[in-house]
Design a protein that fits this description.
Number of strands: 7
Radius of gyration: 18 Å
Number of domains: 1
Number of helices: 8
Helix content: 40-55%
Order of helices and strands: EHEHEHEHEHEHEHH
Largest sheet: 7 strands, parallel
Structural class: alpha/beta
Strand content: 5-15%
Shape: globular
Bound molecules: NADP nicotinamide-adenine-dinucleotide phosphate
Distance between the termini: 42 Å
Length: 260
């Protein structure tokens, strides 16, 4: 963590406060940048402190004021969450929005079975999210306001032959977010599930056969619009909603023969 502190908000500049988990690169970085442009103070949390610090420094330099702070945290260290959440909330002066974006896709082949990789993907993509959401949900529930955003994936809509654990982790995350939404919406808290298609980041840089590829900035723009209008689930880009509707209805005996 840095030693910089935010200035207290004034009635003329009432910052909202957000934490973005996994904001050191890619989609998370673009979301953190977008939020600061839209009037948020942002806690930039990432596993690699240099990445978090670089993003935070660039945001503050571009803005000409301190709008973000950098924190280091490996989401697999579940026991750190309560302490870090308190620290970030103290530094920011509260919390209005949690974005859980951290995620990994470890490569595999159609004939490879590696439990360690599968477990790591589940821990980063789902269990870490549960640790953060369990810490934040009761705070938002008591406040009767707040927003939680989870970056899931279109990959979670079906069990895909190419990477069983990644698709399972995203399927579990989407289902978990829906359940949390069903709990928290009755307390005035909004929960948004984001299902990106292909986004141009480190995660996709060695992948082939990508289509409808968008930039992280375009994804962040769509996510911001959904935050603003308190949507429940979005696909980015939007046309994935229609493709996935078709794919969800392909019978299993056909789907298992496809390489999708
Ligand atoms: N790119 C796509 O096409 C695509 C499509 C659908 C869904 N998604 C989802 O979108 C999210 C962001 O993906 P991306 O493409 O932007 O990936 P990325 O460029 O690889 O960035 C991943 C981010 O997650 C952080 N992270 C990874 N493991 C972590 C850990 N153990 N603890 C804390 N932070 C960790 C990384 O932190 P460091 O920088 O510190 O390593 C980085 O900031 C992921 O959840 C991914 O599954 C991506």
């Amino acid at each position: 963590m840095t030693n910089e502190r935010f200035e207290a908000p004034t009635p003329l500049h009432p910052f909202k406060k957000a934490i973005v988990i996994g904001a050191g690169r890619g989609i998370g970085e673009a979301i953190a940048r977008k939020l600061t442009r839209e009037g948020y103070l942002v806690g930039v949390v990432s596993q690699n402190f240099d990445n978090a610090k670089k993003v935070s420094n660039q945001i503050n330099t571009d803005a000409g004021e301190i709008l973000s702070l950098a924190y280091t945290h490996d989401v697999k260290n579940f026991d750190e969450v309560d302490g870090l959440l308190k620290q970030v909330m103290d530094d920011l002066g509260g919390l209005d929005l949690l974005v859980y974006n951290a995620g990994i896709l470890l490569p595999t082949t159609l004939t490879t079975y590696q439990f360690e990789n599968d477990r790591t993907m589940m821990e980063v993509n789902v269990t870490g999210a549960m640790a953060w959401i369990n810490a934040v949900a009761p705070i938002f529930q008591d406040l009767k306001r707040g927003q939680i955003v989870g970056i899931s994936s279109v990959a979670g809509d079906r069990g895909r032959v190419k990477n069983p654990a990644y698709t399972a982790s995203k399927g579990a995350f989407s289902t978990y977010l829906e359940a949390i939404r069903n709990r928290l919406s009755r307390h005035g808290v909004n929960v948004l599930t984001v299902k990106p298609g292909f986004v141009q980041t480190d995660m996709t840089k060695n992948q082939t056969g990508l289509f409808w590829l968008i930039t992280p900035e375009k994804a962040a723009e769509d996510i911001w619009k959904a935050i603003k209008s308190k949507k429940q689930t979005i696909y980015t880009p939007f046309q994935w909603r229609y493709l996935m509707l078709v794919i969800q209805h392909i019978p299993s005996f056909i789907f298992r023969r496809l390489s999708f």
